[in-house]
Amino acid sequence: MVNHGKIQDSSNDNLVGEHKGDLGLCGWFLVILSFMMVIVTFPISIFMCVKIVQEYERAVIFRLGRIPDKKAKGPGIFFILPCTDSFVKVDMRTVSFDIPPQEILTKDSVTVSVDGVVYFRVHCPISSVANVSNANFSTRLLAQTTLRNVLGTKNLAELLSDREGISHSMQAALDEATDPWGIKVERVEIKDVKLPQQLQRAMAAEAEAMREARAKVIAAEGEMNASRALKEASMVIAESPSGLQLRYLQTLNTIASEKNSTIIFPLPIDMMQTFIQRK
Description:
Layout: H1 2-19, H2 24-40, H3 46-49, E1 50-53, E2 57-63, E3 76-79, E4 85-91, E5 95-105, E6 111-122, H4 125-130, H5 135-151, H6 156-161, H7 163-178, E7 183-194, H8 197-239, H9 241-257, H10 269-278
Antiparallel strand pairs: 1-3, 2-4, 5-6, 6-7
């Protein structure tokens, strides 16, 4: 990948270098002739020579099919020769577009439909004009293929839980691929992941079963803790028989405060112990 990027950069430099080459004797003759025509037809020709670009725009000037300067013109006023020069306006603002829903087969053989949004801008006007015919359209197509390629290496669980990591991976891949075109990818976001209906029902059943299992485990842990607490309480009462009598009186007080119509009084523990000893 690194060698490939170096080859692309070197070819990009060569392409721009060709545009910066000398116009030649015939080219300079045409330029001088055009300049003389501007002088002769002045001030009418001034309306054809003066051009204005906005703050967010840049103008890439072609003189006899070549780019004469190292950088684009603007913002503000610039001059062109009407017969030999032409220019292309490039919008430098951030542009966003939606990635259409893509049918993707994940690593664990699950078919999902995923869409997203991409934010990018032009950082090199000359490269965006000279190295690609339509930078915006090419970036849109590349975003669709990159989305399928990146998500094809992920499992369904990773796709649902690690959207931020997937977005960063897509941004890095797109930014590297569009750098020779003068495009800077600023942000990539996964908007929606649509699962098949059968898979949704299966995942819902699995989640419900997990919740039920967790509830049973919590209930069992509660019963175990309660039994341990009762065991400790019984050991304390066994060490102090008067504690059982106090607990008995406390229970009667609780029953009396609830305003029940029928109250059942259990037999005193001392009487029961007497019968048990005789038996």
